[in-house]
Amino acid sequence: MLAWQSRPLDVVYPVLLVDGIRIKIRDGTVTNRTVYVVMGINMDGHRDILGLWVGPTGGESPKFWLSVMTELKNRGIADVLVLCCDGLRGLPDSARAVWPLVDVQLCVVHLVRNSLRFASKKRWPAITRQLKDIYIAPSLDAAEVELAEFIETWEDTYPAMIKSWRDAWDNFVPFLEFPVELRKVVYTTNAIESLNSRFRKAAVRRGHFPTEQSALKVLYLVSIDRQKNRSNPTGRINGWKSILNTLTIHYHDRLTAHT
């Protein structure tokens, strides 16, 4: 394990973002493997890559995610307020097993993209307009009204799309309780996706990695590379003071319990 991957972490991370990227690794034969990235936003508003994990060959599982979440806790994270992810199997329950009060937020951007997979391309503009009405709704009650209209409009045509929203609803709604400033931070894993685009370029240049460790070393170096005149995936979030004030109102006892 890289020393960077085992370094101590802050006690509280208001937000964790989790996403993955597929790369090729030789393990006897060259196979597609997923490298999962966990990014934390700390109390000072700084985005930091907390670790990289190569997923098992059979895909992610509750056991895998429990080991990752437990490792992060053992490195010092006593509490996480919001965890944003892309419906990774077993992750929500594993995160709650480690931090019982964590709010799990499914990535809204991924939910919208997944919805479009079920629909004819000519229907995409109408679908995305209605979905936007759901995720910008001012309250949970208003979002439920918009969802009901969405279901009425599309269930007969695209039942699988509607089922995906019903299945995801409980893990979609947490951010609807937050003001706009905080919603922008927790509703999508796009901050990791910008990092993944750099990972993808590094992977394409090499074709495949000879071992898991070589892959992790290269991707780690990519993650800490600061590119001049380019937006970088790590660094401080703009307007963090306002967001921290909002977090303090919603999670006051938990933010002060570890200070």
Describe the structure.
This protein is α/β, with parallel strands linked by helices and 259 residues long. The protein has 2 domains: 169 residues, Nucleotidyltransferase, domain 5 (2-Layer Sandwich); 66 residues. Helix content is 49%, strand content 20%. The model has no long low-confidence stretch (mean pLDDT 87). Helix 4 runs antiparallel to helix 5. The two termini are 30 Å apart. The protein contains 10 helices and 6 strands; from the N terminus they run E-E-E-H-E-H-E-H-H-H-H-H-H-H-E-H. The protein has a 6-stranded mixed beta sheet with strand order 5-4-1-2-3-6.
Structure summary:
The chain is an alpha/beta fold.
Secondary-structure blueprint:
Layout (H helix, E strand, L loop, with lengths): L11 E16 L1 E13 L4 E9 L7 H13 L4 E7 L5 H8 L4 E4 L1 H10 L6 H12 L4 H15 L4 H14 L7 H7 L3 H17 L5 H13 L10 E2 L3 H17 L3
Parallel strand pairs: 1-4, 4-5
Antiparallel strand pairs: 1-2, 2-3, 3-6
Helix pairs in contact: 1-2, 3-4, 3-6, 4-5, 8-9
